[in-house]
Specification:
Shape: elongated
Radius of gyration: 22 Å
Number of domains: 2
Length: 280
């Protein structure tokens, strides 16, 4: 394996089609696509300061590095990439990538990041930005913190554990998603999704959890959550009260109390939903 250390590399495609390289303490300055079509590359303590650094690459390891703001759209069409202990300032990263591992990474500008990716594992990651992980599939997230709206639109086959998310319109159009031991705050949660499950979660959402085919909730808290479950088929066990429920399509809702239950016979069949309240 060839070693490159303490270099400043500039110019377009400075290491184009590089292979079997160990790169350390190196700065990639002005110049697009420095490692385009690279193979079997390990990078440590490196900095990327310009656009498209890792396109069409395979078998990449990035550790303890920085992608500055202008390294935007940095990792597209890449397979088998592991990124650890890294600061990601650049937006629009990880697009149509496969077999991605991201651990101990800070995405300070995660706008339009992780789109249409497959087989993704995320652990100990913080992200800030809208439209995170749109249309991606086969994701596993643990200890993930997100501040940004419209997250996980169109995702399929995802598990989320031990996470905190401040995100409006999250999980729209999603399918086969399970969220465990997490906190979510955001309006219009989960609309138009299928097979959406929450276990031991705390949720705050105006008009959330609506238009869902097969919503399952186990031991969840709904705090300041109003007009929930509209046109959803639901199996929900709520710890505590629900502020208001509007026109569920069917299923079962169990809670200590529902402050306002709205069942409009001209819009739904109330007999298809079983309501169980301890304190009503």
């Amino acid at each position: 394996m060839k070693e490159i250390k303490r270099q400043i590399l500039t110019g377009e495609r400075s290491l184009f089609m590089g292979s079997d390289l160990y790169i350390e303490d190196t700065i990639f300055g002005d110049g697009e696509s420095p490692l385009k079509e690279a193979r079997d590359i390990s990078l440590k303590n490196c900095s990327f300061k310009w656009k498209y650094p890792l396109w069409y690459c395979k078998n990449i390891k990035v550790d303890n590095s920085i992608l500055f703001e202008m390294a935007r759209a940095g990792i597209w069409y890449t397979e088998n990439i592991t990124m650890t202990n890294t600061v990601m300032q650049a937006p629009k990263n990880f697009r149509r990538a496969k077999n991605v591992v991201i651990e101990n990474v800070d995405f300070s500008n995660a706008a339009e990041t992780l789109w249409a990716c497959d087989n993704v594992k995320i652990k100990n990651v913080t992200a800030r930005g809208d439209y995170f992980a749109m249309n991606s599939s086969n994701l596993s997230l643990d200890n993930f913190t997100l501040v940004g709206n419209y997250a996980f639109d169109g995702v399929k086959n995802m598990t989320v554990e031990n996470s905190k998310m401040l995100t409006k319109d999250a999980f729209w159009n999603s399918e086969n998603v399970t969220v465990v031991n997490s906190t979510i705050s955001g309006e219009y949660l989960g609309w138009n999704s299928k097979n959406l499950t929450f276990v031991n979660c705390t949720i705050e959402s105006l008009q959330g959890l609506c238009y869902i085919d097969n919503l399952v909730m186990k031991n969840c808290k709904l705090i300041n959550t109003t007009l929930a479950f509209e046109y959803s088929t639901v199996d929900a066990e709520i710890d505590g009260k629900v502020d208001s429920v509007l026109n569920p399509s069917g299923g079962r809702i169990k809670a200590d109390k529902i402050d306002e239950l709205i069942l409009e016979k001209d819009k739904i069949d109330p007999s298809k939903t079983k309501i169980i309240c301890k304190n009503n």
